[in-house]
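Internal tracking record. Fields below are filled automatically when a chain is submitted to the structure queue. Please do not edit lines marked as system-generated. If the sequence contains nonstandard residues, flag them in the REMARKS field before resubmitting.
Queue: standard
Priority: normal
Entity type: single polypeptide chain
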Amino acid sequence: MKSKKIIHIEAAIDFIENHLNEKLGLETVAEAVHYSKYHLHRMFTETVGMTIHDYISRRQLTEAAKLLVFGEKSIMEIAFSCGYESQQAFTSVFKMMYKLPPAQYREHGQFYPLQLKFTLHRKAENIKFALEDIRLADMADIPAWMELVKMVIDGYPHLKEEEYLDKLKCSIEKREALILMFEGIAVGIMAFSYESGSIEFIGVHLQYRSCGISRLFLDKLMKEYLPGRVISTTTYRENDKADTGYRNELKKLGFAERELLMEFGYPTQRFVLPIKE
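SYSTEM-GENERATED OUTPUT FOLLOWS
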């Protein structure tokens, strides 16, 4: 059975998803799921790694971006339908997260999600993973892999699912994709490149982030696949409001900041892990 904690969080997520066109806040959500707002805030933040306020904002902005690209409503109508009280407030937040004002984003015509709905699983307590638990992914792992991609999409601006899927199949064929499975779900994934020595993608299931999985994948990569190589990756630039903690995670792993980049029109920064003596 799922723990009561997960049940309450799932109820909160379901309520949010069904009311994205309204003005939502912690108090409203807590009242709807009949739970203390203080306890709900603590549980939600501990489990998903962001506050309810941030989750709501990111989900509403994602729906707004979808309407801008695929719909015909005016920007003002979209702002109101996503819970904003004015077009000005909506434009300010949208530009902060999507790096373009709504009108320009609409003209550009390229939708990408800022945040997708979280789907939680039963969390097993005190789980310890080892290097040997991580293996090369195969084609049968793709559905589980893509489920995790959707969960951690907040770390990868401009990610488009169809294009990503093609790249993933290529990585699997080249034996450049690692996966950690537990109880039928992917709790960790990593795509890398032998040629460039770069980590192309890394994702950890939000309910298992406290298990040291990122470090485990990095150790596996350095020991068995890219020994003696300088390893690089890219992530958000400093002070990017869209970053939910990916820069800090890389720094904790020992990566150092390098040059600023533009990837698919999005401002990013390259990080490098020096060779260990």
